[in-house]
Design goal:
two-stranded antiparallel sheet; about 45% helix; about 400 residues; single chain
């Protein structure tokens, strides 16, 4: 009896999965070992149905050639980040804000938050928290002063100003530019309140908007987005489920049920594999919640999308994130020109030539460039520009 030709591709796939399962038994998480790209591939192979790209159902557009040409290099960049950059700094209170003396665990959907009026040293720089639990000036009042246009900014470690002084952070620089550039027009003063916190991704930013930002009566809410927002949310959600935290949002509970996640028996890695095919849907629903909040509260909102310092102008994840966000009825401002005309990694706060010290957060010059680019985008947007000028 003839056995026919051996299916070598199938055999290799089986051997690969056996090897990965063996590593999982030994306590190794394949995303940490191989990088997010390899982890996503393996999760898709193990998932019997559509993979994440199939579920996205993106149509071909003018970004197509960019995606195809950059996938290999993007995988190399991720591998470099996962294996080389700053591994000795993980969870160090001097460089990990969640473990610093200025932070506490609130017992809510947030993993940590600033302690009002706290003071510490972070990245070898002073870190001062105001009475409202923000890394920002102390003269802001909860009640908006008359004649003031107030902007609330919500983001993660970059927007918080990791590695620079508070006055050097682009949120503060944007406030200065607005007050100088629009002086003598309708508003007496422009304020930019910075609600950002390191380690907050899009789900935490949504929670912060709904639970805290509204108390300060902003005229405009600016929520930051990055290329991480697409890929990291399944992991963050799985982490909350594993810790048996309340996931708060009804849309998250529905999505977890759709994914077949059982927090009683599933390990964190298994939860991630189940949630991974839903990552675009998770991002879309999160942005939709922000859009719904904007409409219900009658407050203007925009997402400003930052690219990674040192990353390509349009990497695959950033393009996909932009596409998903633009499906919803919310303004998206792509802050992609901030690092043009210079060597991007020269804008890091840490030397990228040293794996133990490298830190890809933007330095002082990086923050100045972000402030300039964001200021131009705000004024150029028809709705927001008209609001700022009171036209």
């Amino acid at each position: 009896m003839s056995l026919g030709r051996v299916n070598t591709d199938g055999t290799r796939a089986v051997l690969l999965l056996l090897g990965i399962n063996a590593m999982a038994v030994c306590g190794l998480w394949y995303d940490d070992l191989l990088g997010a790209t390899a982890g996503s591939f393996i999760a898709d192979v193990r998932n019997s149905g559509q993979n994440s790209v199939d579920r996205g159902a993106f149509t071909q557009n003018y970004y197509g050639e960019i995606l195809e040409s950059e996938r290999a290099e993007e995988g190399q960049e991720r591998m470099m980040r996962n294996l080389n950059i700053g591994r000795n700094r993980d969870r160090n209170p001097a460089t990990f804000i969640g473990n610093s003396s200025a932070a506490r665990i609130p017992g809510t959907f947030l993993p940590w938050e600033f302690i009002p009026n706290a003071s510490t040293t972070f990245h070898e720089l002073p870190l001062e928290i105001n009475q409202w639990g923000m890394r920002d000036r102390r003269d802001y009042t909860k009640e908006k002063p008359d004649g003031t246009f107030r902007i609330a900014m919500v983001g993660g470690s970059t927007v918080m100003g990791t590695g620079v002084l508070e006055k050097q952070c682009f949120a503060n620089l944007l406030e200065v530019k607005l007050n100088e550039g629009l002086a003598g027009q309708y508003y007496d003063r422009y304020e930019v309140l910075n609600f950002s916190m390191g380690g907050y991704h899009l789900l935490e930013r949504l929670y912060l908007v709904e639970e805290k930002v509204g108390e300060f009566d902003p005229d405009l809410i600016l929520v930051s987005g990055t290329d991480k927002d697409l890929t990291i949310q399944p992991e963050r959600l799985a982490r909350k489920l594993k810790k048996r935290q309340d996931i708060h949002f009804p849309f998250l509970r529905r999505l977890v049920k759709e994914a077949g996640v059982d927090r009683r028996v599933d390990q964190k890695e298994r939860m991630e594999r189940k949630l991974h095919p839903f990552m675009e849907e998770l991002l879309m629903r999160t942005v939709r919640e922000l859009s719904n909040y904007s409409k219900e509260r009658n407050v203007e909102m925009a997402i400003f999308l930052l690219r990674r310092v040192g990353g390509k102008k349009l990497n695959a994840d950033l393009v996909r994130t932009l596409e998903v966000m633009r499906r919803e009825d919310l303004t998206v401002l792509p802050v992609f020109e901030a690092y043009e005309g210079t060597e991007p990694m020269a804008l890091w706060i840490g030397p990228y030539t040293d794996p133990d010290l490298a830190d890809p957060h933007p330095n002082i010059e990086g923050h100045r460039r972000i402030a300039d680019n964001l200021y131009e985008l705000l004024l150029a947007d028809p709705t927001i520009g008209e609001m700022l000028r009171a036209e």
